[in-house]
Each structure stands twice: as C-alpha cells, then as structure tokens.
Amino acid sequence: MVTLRLNDIGTRYGNVQVVSGITTPVIQPGTVTAVIGPNAAGKSSLFKRIAGLAKGTGVVELGTKTKDRNTICYMPQDTGSTAVLTVYESIILAAKQGSSLRVKADELERIDEILAALRISNLSGRNLGELSGGQRQLVAIAQTLVRDPKILLMDEPTSALDLHRQMEVLSFMRDIAKGQNIIVLIAIHDLNHALQYCDQAMAIRDGRMVAFGPCAEVIDRDLLRDVYQVDGHVELNSLGHRHVVLRGPSDQTDSRHDTAILRNPRNETALAAQ
Amino acid sequence: MSTNQISIEAGSAHYKARSLRRFMILLAMGGALFLSFAIDLATGPANYPLSDVIATLLDPWSASDQMRVVIWEIRMPIALMALTVGAALSTAGAQMQTILANPLASPFTLGISAAAGFGAALALVLGVALLPAFVDFIIPINAFVMAMATALIIHFFSRMRGVTVETIVLLGIALVFTFNALLALLQYLASEQALAAVVFWTMGSLVKATWTKVAVTAIAVAIALPLFVRQAWALTALRLGDAKAESFGVNVQGLRLRTMLIVSMLAAIPVSFVGTIGFIGLVGPHIARMLVGEDQRFFLPASVLCGALILSATSVLSKLLIPGAILPIGVITALVGVPFFFSLIFASRRKSW
C-alpha cells in the first residue's frame, strides 16, 4: 500500500528557494489533503517536487518499493491548448504514454467510464480548443484519473468551475480517494471547500509549511491572519459545518513576518517520536 | 453519477469511427500518390503513350532501349526524388511545428534551408569543406553541418526564458536574411560557372536527381520515421503544452533536442541535393493536420504522404506548364503552393491550429 511522507523537502526555481524544509507525518491512503496558502506560496513547486518533475532536496517516502510513471500523478494548472485533438484523444494520450501504439478495447471502455463518471461524455468528440475553462479542468481530471494514480496531486482543479461543478468535483474526488484507497492532495483557495471536503490541511507560506493537521485545527483565525493576512474567524453554520467568515484584508500586512507563528502540532509529535 | 448506456459508449464509438475515417484518408492519399507518381513517369518532352510507359515499368527489357533509358534512367530518379524530398521536407516541417508549438515553423521559414543553401554554396564557390573528412560528399555534408548548427541555434534560443512563438519566427526571419546575404556575397565572389551552379541550385530543381541521391534521401527518411513513430505518444503530448506533457512523464527537453537533430538531417539532405524547395515543409503538415488532426499515429504518415504527393504533383506541373520545358520545381511550389495553401485556410475556416 502506498503512503506518502515528505522528509525535509525543498526545491528551487532558478536561483530562488521556493520550497524549503517541508516535513509531514505519514499521509494515509483514502484521504484528501487540502494544500492551502496564498498565491506564490510554493504549492505548485511542492507538487512538482513530489511528482519528481522538479529537482531538489529531501526525500519523498512512499512506503512501497514498486513505483512506476503513474504512481504519483501531478495535474498542473490548466493552460489551454491549440492542438487539433479531441477530448477523447487527449485522454487516450494520457493513458498510453510509454506504451504501445495500439489502443485496446478495454482501454477505451475505461475512458468511457471515466468520462461518464465526470458527466462529460458529451464532450468526447469536441476539439480541445473549443472547450471552456471549466470543461478543460474536467478533461484534465479525466486525463489524470485514467492513469490510475496512487497519489494524485491536483493543482487548483476547481478554479475555473462554477459553484455546482466545484462541489461536484470535490465530492467526486473524495469518493475516489475513499473508493480506490488513494492519496489525494488538492491545492485549493476556497477554505470553506477545504473544511467541507478535505480530511486534513497543509498550510504553506513563503515556501515553508506552517501547519499540518485536521482541517478544523489548521483553518482558524490565526491562519487567516498569519498566512492570508485577512481578518476573520471560523464558526459553525446552521448546518453544523465549520465555516470561514471573512471581514476584510488584515491591517497587519506589513508586519506579517514578525507575527508568523509556526504551528505544526502533528509534525512536532511525529518528529519527536523519531 | 452514471448516465445511460448509450451515451457512455458514445465516446469510444465516435473515436473508432474517426480512426477508421483517418485510416481511409491515409489509404486514399496513398492511392493519389501512386497515381501522381505514374503520371509523373508518363509525362515529359518525349511523348509516350501511358500504356507503353506501364509496359516499360513492368518489363523493362521488352521496351526499346531509348524508352527504357528515358523511363528508368531519366524520369524514374526524378519522380522518386520528388517523393522522397517531399516526404522528408514535410516530415521535418511537421515535427518542427510540433516541438516549437509554432504553426509557422518549417525548414524554409526558420532559416534551416537557407543555412543549408549557404553551406552548399561554400562548397560550390570556395571549395570549403566544413568537415574535412568527407571531401567526396562536400556539398551535402556542408549543407548538413550548417542546417544542424542553425537548428541548434533555434533550439537553444527557444529554450530561453521569456521567448515566445513570435520571437522564434522573428529569429527565423533574421536567419533567413543573414544566410541569404551571405549567399549573395558568395555569388558576388563566384566564377561564372560556379555562379550558374549556385543560381540553379537556389531555385530548387529535381532534374539533377540520380539513383544515389534518391537512395540517400530515402535512407534519411527511413532512419527518421521509426524514431518518430517510437515517440508518437510523447510528440503528440507536446501539443498539450510542456507542463501537461511533463506531468504525463514525457522528458520534454530531451525529446525536443533529439527531434530537432533528426529534423535538421531531414531538412539538410534534400536541400543539398535539389536546392531550396520552399513551402512543402509548411504546407504539407498543415494539409495533413486539416485532414487527420494531430495524433502523430495519423499525423506523421499523413505529413509524409502529403509532402510526397504535393512535390510529385508539382513535378508533373513543372513539365506541363510550358510544353517542352521543365521549370525549376522550387518556383512552382512557391507560385502554386502558396495560393493553394491560403485557399485551404480561408475555405475551411475550421480552427486547425
């Protein structure tokens, strides 16, 4: 069984150290982890480093010896494409990298199933260039799922989706994580979605992990202030869910480095146990 | 989250139908190519009936000596040269467009043909060999070295941060002008005899085709194609963008460099034999893309067939336009190919890049 533990992970982009010293406890299969933090915090760089697409320091521990090109799948932020390829072809492309030129019947069947599960069967014959931003994100999710990953790193997979689709996709990913017993990490900006759909959260600021733990513990007033520089708090809504209430940008933006608090309860216990 | 059974299978059904249609298109192109090749053999200053030409092809020793020499020694190398050169240039253009993510990329537009031309002229005019070891093949080797150097310049420039598709085209235009200026300088310095050779050569012509040149060009294509076929999925993935291709596990940088080296071979060899024949490398892949899309399993053979077909048909045209004379084929590809290309773009109106 594949587990994931990051041990002192760091990476550079050019001359800039964009991620450094990220160490987590063991992340179990069947869980969804929200990776949260402001723009340019290092979320994408961390994902690339975990997926082996960026060089750097530290060790990505998988808890297994068997690893192939599809064990860890990174789904990058969508950039669009002008390729004269249909949605269906683009998904075949994801599935067939490094294997034979012939596409077998059972491979087609599996793609049909994934498209149906994401409710985008109607897009299969469309050219990529004709898709809306939201449709492209759904296709990208299909491209990732078809590779049958054990660890799935999704970089803002819902940023272009409407509200209904966001919730649908997140709930779908949670079902996939549980159903197929895989590890899903999602970089996400909407903290309420993180609270609702993710088991745990990893908060990153300036390339460093500042918190890791259950969403309810990580996402609180201090995180809003220290990581996002916004004033707000977390309360229970009428459905009994935790819910972020925002008042506005914090006044303390200039002194954020002075007020940074490293809150990492799980991590400290994990390190202490070693 | 499941929908009904019919719509679930709609995707694969559509895909299968599409694949079959593409396969049929490739077959039709093969048929058209064979026809064009036959017509190419049958046309020329000496007017032989088609039936006699076919008879000579099937049984050379039953025909008269004159007929056999005309068909097998004169027309056949030219007709085959048209096929192989067309295939090589179109394939080179297709893969340049793929790896540079640039619809305007081709050996001709990015200066690789011009560089090869300059390299060949160095040999023709000054007798300079860029690789002293192979003096017997001084013209093709010079062309190849210059083409490769230019391809590498484009490659490394395209990897620099902040370089866009437009910058690459501008670089290509700059390279074309540079090499054309250097070529003009050589022409200025050249003796009358060498000048005639260079001028003839810059127009692009198939009439000096020999069996050896056909064989070398065919070997270049035969080496390149399997290498591209092996990378078919990865090359197609490049069209989804670098980030996506990398996330699929494609070694993007390595693939680009390898492809560029093969492309420079494919572009240089024809240019060194037949001169600069423009637009095949640009038009061929675009027509292929309109017909079969960009899945390399179909796009690659379609580009090969398209390039071969265009140059073969142009070879026929070059003999028919002025009866009794054979026009330089490079002139025809430019005069006929470009308007044809534009009419395709404007007629289809379909977004094909």
TrEMBL record, chain A:
Example of a GO biological process term: zinc ion transport
ABC transporter domain residues: 4-231
Molecular function GO terms recorded: ATP binding; ATP hydrolysis activity
InterPro entries in alphabetical order: AAA+_ATPase, ABC_transporter-like_ATP-bd, ABC_transporter-like_CS, Metal_Ion_Import_ABC, P-loop_NTPase
CDD domains: ABC_Iron-Siderophores_B12_Hemin
Thylakoid in keyword set: no
Keywords for this protein: ATP-binding, Ion transport, Nucleotide-binding, Transport, Zinc, Zinc transport
UniProt-recorded name of the protein: Ferrichrome ABC transporter
Organism: Thalassospira profundimaris
Lineage: Bacteria, Pseudomonadati, Pseudomonadota, Alphaproteobacteria, Rhodospirillales
Automatic annotation (TrEMBL), chain B:
Keyword Ligase in record: no
InterPro entries reported for this sequence: ABC_BtuC-like, ABC_transptr_permease_BtuC
Transmembrane segments: 23-42, 74-96, 108-131, 137-157, 169-190, 210-229, 261-283, 298-318, 325-347
Location(s) in or outside the cell: Cell membrane
GO biological process annotation, one example: siderophore-iron import into cell
Pfam assignment, any one: FecCD
UniProt keyword Transport, yes or no: yes
Gene3D superfamilies listed in its UniProt record: ABC transporter involved in vitamin B12 uptake, BtuC
Membrane topology: Multi-pass membrane protein
Record keywords, A-Z: Cell membrane, Membrane, Transmembrane, Transmembrane helix, Transport
One Gene Ontology cellular component annotation held by this UniProt entry: plasma membrane
GO terms of molecular function: transmembrane transporter activity
Main location group: membrane
Protein family per UniProt: Belongs to the binding-protein-dependent transport system permease family. FecCD subfamily.
Protein name (Swiss-Prot/TrEMBL): Iron-siderophore ABC transporter permease
